[in-house]
């Protein structure tokens, strides 16, 4: 994406404070998100620790892996800074794709399936950029804060 979408093309703009949870691992996935401003950190919890998987910046999107299936989120997303994201309903994307030839939808489904498979394979074999952990290191105090925030989010949402 070279340019950000125009705000009048989307109804749902969410503003997140630093540290706010956008979505949580295990939640149902109903939206694709486009980061307009700020950064989102994608994290995974394991054995009481929080591990960064990626940092998503402006003009990037999150949630593409579950656009064409009913799988739940496989990681959590937390605002690293004051952040704005557009929310796009999966149903709206599917409506747009209904106007396209069927092969376009088939390509999209195949690509997301392949991305998910590669993502899982990389996690399984712990294949990452050598600098990923240093680049997105989460210090012990920050670990505590994130775990507490996630716990509060789970409690509010009944997860």
UniProtKB/TrEMBL annotation:
Signal peptide: none
InterPro entries, per database record: CNG_cation_channel, cNMP-bd_dom, cNMP-bd_dom_sf, RmlC-like_jellyroll
Record's keyword terms, sorted: Ion channel, Ion transport, Ligand-gated ion channel, Transport
Domain of life of the source: Bacteria
Record keyword Transport present: yes
Transmembrane segments: none
UniProt domain Cyclic nucleotide-binding: residue ranges: 1-97
Alphabetized GO MF terms: intracellularly cyclic nucleotide-activated monoatomic cation channel activity; protein-containing complex binding
Protein name: Cyclic nucleotide-binding domain-containing protein
Organism: Halobacteriovorax marinus
């Amino acid at each position: 994406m070279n340019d950000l979408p125009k705000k009048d093309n989307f109804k749902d703009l969410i503003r997140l404070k630093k540290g706010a949870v956008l979505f949580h691992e295990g939640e149902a996935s109903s939206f694709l998100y486009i980061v307009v401003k700020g950064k989102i950190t994608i994290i995974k919890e394991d054995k009481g620790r929080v591990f960064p998987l990626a940092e998503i910046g402006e003009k990037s999107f999150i949630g593409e892996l579950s656009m064409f299936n009913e799988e739940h989120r496989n990681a959590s997303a937390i605002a690293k800074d004051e952040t704005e994201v557009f929310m796009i309903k999966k149903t709206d994307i599917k409506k747009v794709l209904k106007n396209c030839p069927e092969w376009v939808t088939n390509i999209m489904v195949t690509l997301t399936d392949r991305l998910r498979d590669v993502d899982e394979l990389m996690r399984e074999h712990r294949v990452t950029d050598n600098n990923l952990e240093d680049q997105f290191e989460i210090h012990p105090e920050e670990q505590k804060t994130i775990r507490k925030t996630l716990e509060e989010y789970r409690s509010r949402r009944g997860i």
